[in-house]
Amino acid sequence: MDRVRDRHRRVLRRGGPVRLRSARRPPWVARAGRSLASDHPGRPHVPGYHVRTMKAVVMAGGQGTRLRPLTSNQPKPMLPIVGEPMMQHILRLLRRHGFSEVVVTVQFLASVVRNFFGDGSDLGLRLTYATEQEPLGTAGSVKNAESLLHDTFLVISGDAVTDLDLAEVLRFHKEKGAAVTVTLNRVQDPLEFGIVIAGSDGRIERFLEKPGWGEVFSDTINTGIYVIEPEVLSFIPPGEEFDFAHDLFPLLMAKGLPLYGCAPDGYWTDVGTLEAYFKVHRDVLDRKVELELPGFHMDGDLWVGEDAEIEPGARLRGPLFVGPNTRVEKGAELREYTALGSNVVVKTGAFLHRAIVHDNAYIGASTTLRGCMVGKNSDVASGATVDEGAVIADECHIGQGSVVNPRVKVYPFKTVDPGALVSQSIIWESRGSRGLFGDRGVTGLVNIDVTPEMAIRLAMAFATSLPKRSVVVASRDVTRTARIIKRAMVVGVNAAGVHVHDLELAPVPMARLYARSARANSGLAARTAPLDPSTVELVFFDGRGIDIDLATQRKVERIFYRDDLRRAFHHEIGELNFPARGREYYLGGMMNVLDAGSIRMRHPKLVVDYGFGATVLTAPPLLGQVGTEVLAVDAVLDEDRAVLSPEQTEHHLARLSELVRSTGADLGVLFDSTGERVRLVDERGRLLGLSESLLAMISLVARTSPYPQVAVPVVTSRVAEEIVARHGGRIVWTRISASALMAAAEERGVTFAGAEGGGYIFPEFLAAYDGLMSVARLLELLARTQTTLATVVDELPSAH
Predict the structure, then answer these.
(1) CA-CA distances (angstroms) from residue 12 to 15, 17, 96, 300, 545?
(2) Are 733 and 707 in contact (CB under 8 A)?
(3) Quick one: DSSP state of residue 329?
(4) Domains of the chain as residue ranges with CATH
(5) Alpha-carbon span 148 to 130, nearest angstrom
(6) Average pLDDT for 659-667
């Protein structure tokens, strides 16, 4: 290894562009010219042999079919090796050897290469591109760039990994006066390469492309790195598929031109198969090849990129690579030969060993990845397993708890369902491609599934489904996640020619009621998912304040996926307003439907845990107006504590129970962060289960309604039907989703709707979950029936 480093130091010290000069033409040039003129009448005589500043030609047109699915949507040279494209490592090798001008031949997905490298200035190079309209073979692609090559030039593949001493090859070429110098290397398995036999002076005597074992006569192979005189290009027919080793070199040897082979020191490998792709990562991390790795080399054979974050408690055992801006959470374990790209997230409890993970991937909690590959922008959800040799391509989603068996290939843009066992490759079928909308709106990991760019397009799609100059109300919860996504959505709505009334930080029910009024036509809200601060939920509702129906969802999805977005002209861009009295409208509407007098007469005492959420903006004034005495807990806005984990929720509920008992309160309430759902504690300090709370609400509504009609999901206990039937009412059964329950609540005659998640609906006010309205109406019903919550629960029929 010291020898390799010393060789590179010599190259760097020497610096400057590599130049070859000749005072007179080698004799083969004249012979070649005569032969070419006689064989191809009408072509000009080959010019003299004058070599100036040398250029390099990087061949970057390969499709890499044996590397699929990794190369299904990107050219082979763009595959990352420890965080950077293979071709970038090649360009750095050329720069170290003094090259400054590089011609890049491109064909398959040529724009990907051009867009990434541009003019090469970021690497200290000048790049020009020669584009093939159709595959021309290795020699044909270089022929296509002939107008850019006037002197001796070097040809190298953009999809290999090497640190060979190119200076040694150039000196050899000059000393021998060769027409072509082929760079050679020895390998254990020569079957996939072109075998070369050379004499003691290095002159090539025989070629054999990709032999069978019975034809193997040497372990010295052609690396595809050549030094070539420009006159040789005249032997390549233009516009035809022509290969160096198969076509050109045998032709040159038959004409007696000097072809030489040089075997310099250093590492070389062709990354032509998935097995080779895994192996080259091991070789790089073992420092068998000298590449410039981004980041810092740390104790334990760890390479850590800039701005990477490794939390205390994460376990790392090198050699391994953690790319820039990647985050590894505590409790995660990274083992040997794992390589993570940039902007990767590895959640707590994840185990990765010999895993290659490309940029912007998400590795969920308690996942297991062994000897596998995960492409860029792909998600591996919590509890999933990706086994030995499996390859997950770009933009895939591996569902929670699923298992991808060994050597399975999942092609780009595919979805594996939660809990699925995948034993065969997923190539054509989408495996149930996810729609945008689910039971809780559009959900996803922030800046992974749901990015600001995606939020803009989604909001534009929603606004496109509305008439121009409509009004959309917008709100968000207390978190930064919701704030940035909501701002992006406001931009999207305005860009489609629709006005926005932005309530900014407000409970979701407040925005829904605003949409239900004549002040807006529809609305949207950005909120962080309960129990998971890394997930954001985007909710869209119509002019009734309830979630948009299935037909509207599909319409928005079609607009989004087809990119049929309405882009308003400059004079049609929507306006952005910030209503000053949104809270007053909300609280005034609630007071209009409540029997506040009954509550005041009872003067109830409450313990309210606001959970650091948005209800702290609306509940205190209303609870004061109805005459309650409140002991407030966590009554501040705190974005870092508003989304409670399951453990934190249990702690809050236990504290709430204790406070109710110790203060003699009539009721304890815990609001969620968005003001939509509540958990209840009765006057004895007993935490009510979710089913008990729902049945207690149903019982109170049934007692106080002349003909109660109650809507509940079909999974609700049949005790609900028994309670309502006692009071001459009926149950309306609905599908298991919040949107279905809201739609049922809008039906004529329905007095109450609810589900076992702490969400309750009083359609007289709003046909959507509203935590504050639920508490206020509960206090009213208890006052009207002159009973307590504990008594109501004790009188519930037993479940069968």
Answers:
(1) 5, 11, 6, 28, 68
(2) no
(3) -
(4) 2-265 (3.90.550.10), 293-422 (2.160.10.10), 442-578 (3.40.120.10), 586-794 (3.40.120.10)
(5) 9
(6) 96
Structure-token pair, residue 80: 């990352």
Q: Tell me, what's the pLDDT at 512?
A: 95
Backbone angles phi, psi at 629, to 5 degrees: -105, 125
Q: Please name the residue that has the structure tokens 């040159």.
A: 252
pTM of the model: 0.61
Burial of 694 (0-12, 13-18, 19+ CB in 10 A): buried
CB atoms within 10 A of CB 718: 11
Beta bridge partners of 538: 442, 526
Token pair 């609540």 is found at 745
Nearest to 679 by CA among 737, 623, 607: 607
Indicate whether 47 pLDDT > 50: no
Identity of the amino acid at 558: R
Cβ-proximal residues to 664 (8 Å cutoff; 6+ apart), any chain: 605, 683
What whole-number distance in Å separates Cα of residue 343 and Cα of residue 333?
18
Which residues are CB-neighbours of 743 under 8 A, at least 6 positions away?
Answer: 546, 549, 734
Distance CA 295, CA 316 (A): 16
pLDDT digits (tens, 9 = 90+) for 531-568: 888 889 999 999 999 999 988 998 999 899 888 899 99
Which residue is listed with tokens 């019982």? 699
Q: What are phi and psi of 17, to 5 degrees?
A: -70, 145
SS (H, E, C) 507-526: CHHHHHHHHHCCCCCEEEEE
Burial of 746 (0-12, 13-18, 19+ CB in 10 A): middle
- 425-450 pLDDT, tens digit each: 887 654 444 468 888 899 888 888 88
Q: How far is CA 165 from CA 4, 49, 95, 339, in A?
A: 9, 25, 12, 27
263: Cα separation from own chain's centroid = 43
- What's the rounded mean pLDDT across residues 76-96? 89
Pairwise CA distance, residues 747 & 741, whole Å: 10
Rounded distance between C-alpha atoms, residue 487 and residue 506, angstroms: 14
* CA atoms of 659 and 668, how far apart (whole Å): 8
CA–CA separation, 273 and 530 (whole Å) = 44
Tell me which residue of 472, 439, 436 sits closest to 455, measured CA to CA.
Answer: 436
Chain segment 120-172, per-residue pLDDT in tens: 888 888 999 988 888 888 888 888 888 888 888 999 988 889 988 888 999 89
Q: Are 670 and 678 in contact (CB under 8 A)?
A: yes
Helix 771-785 to helix 690-704 angle, to the nearest 10 degrees? 50
| Peptide bond between residue 713 and the one before it cis (omega within 30 degrees of 0) | no
Task: For residues 37 and 42, give the distance between their C-alpha atoms in angstroms, rounded to a whole number.
Answer: 7
- Could you tell me whether strands 259-262 and 153-157 are parallel, antiparallel, or unpaired per DSSP bridges? unpaired
* CB proximity list for 340: less than 8 A, separation 6 or greater: 83, 320, 321, 322, 323, 326, 328, 334, 346, 352, 357
- Return the structure tokens found at 231: 């006159």
Peptide bond into 319 cis (omega under 30): yes
Residues belonging to the chain: 800
Amino acid residing at 206: R
Q: What are the C-alpha distances in Å from 609 to residues 271, 479, 603, 631, 669? A: 59, 18, 19, 9, 6
Tokens representing 643 are 């989304």
Nearest in space to 58 (alpha carbons), one of 133, 160, 164, 147: 160
Strand partners, 268: 162
Rounded to whole angstroms, the Cα distance separating 661 from 201 reads 97
Cβ atoms 294, 329 nearer than 8 A: no
